Structure formats: C-alpha cells, structure tokens
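Supplementary Methods. Inverse-folding protocol.

Structures were first reduced to a discrete structure-token string of length 173. This string, shown here, constituted the complete conditioning input.
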C-alpha cells in the first residue's frame, strides 16, 4: 500500500471520533470515581485529595487510552475508522516514551490555543455583558484556530509540533 501524509480533514474527524470516546470514558469514570470517593454525596468537592485524584484521572485516562492504542498497533479507534496510523520515522511501532511525549506536547498545544483566545472571551464579556455570547465566540474562535493550525501543520515536513518532538509521523494508508 502507498503511504501518504493524511489530509487535515481526516485528522480532525479522527480527533472528533476519539474525543467522543474519551468523553464517554470520562463520564463513566467520573460517575464510578464519585461513588468510590464519596458514596454518600456523589461529589468530588470534599477535599484536596479528592480534587487531586480527579485531576490525575482527567489527564491519566486520555493518556492511557491514546498511548495504549499508539503503542499497540499505532491506531486508536478513530484512526482505524479514518485509515490513519502513527509510526516512528523508520516506519516502526511507536514506543511508550515517544507516545507520552506526543501526548504531553499535544496537551500543551491545546492549552496554549485556549489561553491565547482568553482575551477574546473577556473582551466580549466586558463589552456585551453577555456570557453566552462570549462563550460562543470563544469556542468558535478556538475551533477556527484549531482548524487553521491543523491546515498549517499538515503542510510541514514532519506534521505537527507534537509529531516533530516525539519523532513520530501520522500516515494515511
């Protein structure tokens, strides 16, 4: 089969697919965690230990989900659906270290996009005094920036920054 760089639309579709799966795991896991941590009140707001445990869970679950699939076959469920595969630059399976670097850098990229757009959110709140309009504009701006970032990074030799730093590449087959 001919291996080629994937079109950014496929990457976004895969991201959406896997994002829905992670969201479902978060919802189920949060429910189970609330039952384990505080079965009487079903909330996680009773102490620093509960909050720390919850944040570890929120970051650990996607890391576990994504890295496990990346190192065992190079494909998440979304990647299989869109015929994408992750590999190193020699065409070999990705190792845990590279998968972890890819995950960490991608998280930092997403966080940076969110932080860069915060002034837009506060500007709309201060001018229009409308939280719903500000949130809509913020999310729209975030989606546009993500869209443009994927379009731009798909033109780079090694793809995105997280692919470059982890020495991985996303291919379409």
């Amino acid at each position: 089969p001919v291996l080629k760089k994937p079109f950014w639309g496929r990457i976004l579709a895969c991201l959406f697919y896997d994002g829905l799966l992670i969201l479902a795991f978060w919802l189920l896991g949060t429910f189970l965690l609330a039952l384990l941590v505080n079965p009487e009140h079903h909330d996680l707001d009773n102490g620093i230990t509960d909050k720390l445990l919850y944040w570890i869970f929120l970051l650990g679950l996607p890391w576990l989900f994504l890295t496990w699939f990346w190192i065992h076959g190079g494909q998440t469920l979304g990647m299989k659906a869109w015929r994408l595969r992750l590999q190193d630059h020699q065409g070999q399976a990705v190792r845990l270290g590279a998968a972890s670097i890819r995950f960490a850098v991608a998280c930092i990229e997403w966080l940076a996009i969110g932080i860069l757009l915060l002034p837009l959110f506060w500007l709309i709140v201060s001018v229009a005094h409308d939280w719903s309009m500000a949130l809509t504009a913020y999310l729209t701006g975030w989606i546009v920036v993500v869209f443009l970032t994927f379009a731009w990074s798909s033109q780079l030799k090694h793809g995105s920054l997280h692919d470059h730093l982890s020495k991985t590449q996303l291919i379409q087959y």
